[in-house]
Amino acid sequence: MSRIAIAGAGAFGTALAVTLAQAGRPVTLWARNCDAARDMVKTRENLRLPGVPLPENVTVTADLDALRICDPVLLSVPMQALAGFLRDAAATLDGRALVACCKGVDMTTGRGPTAIIAGACPTAVPAVLTGPSFAADIARGLPTALTLACVDPDHGTALQERLSTPTLRLYRSGDPVGAELGGALKNIMAIAAGIVIGAGLGDSARAALMTRGFAEMQRFARAQGAEAETLAGLSGFGDLVLTCTSTQSRNFRYGAALGQGAYFDPQITVEGAATARAVAAIAQARGIDMPVTQSVAQVIDGQRSIAEAVTTLLSRPLKEE
Ligand SMILES: NC(=O)C1=CN([C@@H]2O[C@H](COP(=O)(O)OP(=O)(O)OC[C@H]3O[C@@H](n4cnc5c(N)ncnc54)[C@H](O)[C@@H]3O)[C@@H](O)[C@H]2O)C=CC1
Ligand SMILES: O=C(CO)COP(=O)(O)O
């Protein structure tokens, strides 16, 4: 059986490497930065996931050629870097199962990860691994459940078995578009929830925001061809609940900083910001009603204050739920 590879040695890729390796499956973890790879080889730790020792059967490398013998390859680079990464890596990675672990919509093309994989690697089997899970929780061996989505049921079943571990339980789905949109859209809502809490608007407002945000997520996903049930599962509703209610979420913390008018380190990965812009543009072009997403995009781009966004949302015409 070929080795599992993980491309992208951030917090999430490293956490997946740890749980898979602990379950007895050797993993090759690829980092683009040679110095970072060398440090990890030396210290057996990744600074993005501090306090978690890398098991012996995790091989860290910055050499893309090392992935030639691996299948599946999990893609855990940030969403806005995925297309560029695959342009460079397509010749090495085409033909195998490529499992997108990133959450978002590409700002340049408006595409999700599986469409980007299919465009760059036409003979690959695209799949998605997504759902409510913080890297630190997975790495600590806390119980976690995720969605593994793949159009082909045989490949989906094989990936589900290969990537489940005693603490990481994967549920199968045949709707990768729905699964990836759930993960992308909930990050926008997590920013909005953070804004609500940061600005002191209260828990009731957050519950309203999450519920109306979920309606908006379903509307957008259905218009993109997703199945409604997928959004109601781990990859949509599950991850929405997690990231809108936990300060572990970077998207939530970013929103909270916006709400408080506080500084937020721009080096921190906040997938929902670029995705809000991408989704707002698609929604506007296609006439999909996305008031929360539009407000988030406008607030993060400084086109509207939080007070103005709240007034606009509250003064929309009254309607049926
Ligand atoms: N951290 C978490 O708890 C979870 C993260 N995710 C998703 O995983 C994806 C990655 O997030 P994290 O690992 O948390 O981010 P991170 O900020 O910890 O690390 C990102 C990694 O990607 C690398 N990278 C950046 N640009 C790259 C490029 N052009 N080519 C190759 N590598 C590049 C960076 O060097 C860094 O190692 C995101 O889409 C995120 O939404 C999903 C579930 C949980
Ligand atoms: O996607 C995640 C949890 O499922 C991680 O959320 P953040 O990227 O907001 O930290």
UniProtKB/TrEMBL annotation:
Protein's pathway: Membrane lipid metabolism; glycerophospholipid metabolism
Residue sites binding sn-glycerol 3-phosphate per the record: 103, 131, 133, 186, 239, 249-251
Family membership: Belongs to the NAD-dependent glycerol-3-phosphate dehydrogenase family.
Function of the protein: Catalyzes the reduction of the glycolytic intermediate dihydroxyacetone phosphate (DHAP) to sn-glycerol 3-phosphate (G3P), the key precursor for phospholipid synthesis.
InterPro entries per record: 6-PGluconate_DH-like_C_sf, 6PGD_dom2, G3P_DH_NAD-dep, G3P_DH_NAD-dep_C, G3P_DH_NAD-dep_N, NAD(P)-bd_dom_sf
CC annotations in GO: cytosol
Binding-site positions, NADPH: 12, 32, 103, 135, 250, 271
Cellular compartments annotated: Cytoplasm
Residues that hold NAD(+) according to the record: 8-13, 135, 250
Record NCBIfam families: PRK00094.1-2 (NF000940), PRK00094.1-4 (NF000942)
EC number: 1.1.1.94
The protein's name in its UniProt record: Glycerol-3-phosphate dehydrogenase [NAD(P)+]
Catalytic site positions: 186 (proton acceptor)
Gene that specifies this protein: gpsA
Lineage per the UniProt record: Bacteria, Pseudomonadati, Pseudomonadota, Alphaproteobacteria, Rhodobacterales
Any Pfam family: NAD_Gly3P_dh_N
UniProt enzyme class: oxidoreductase
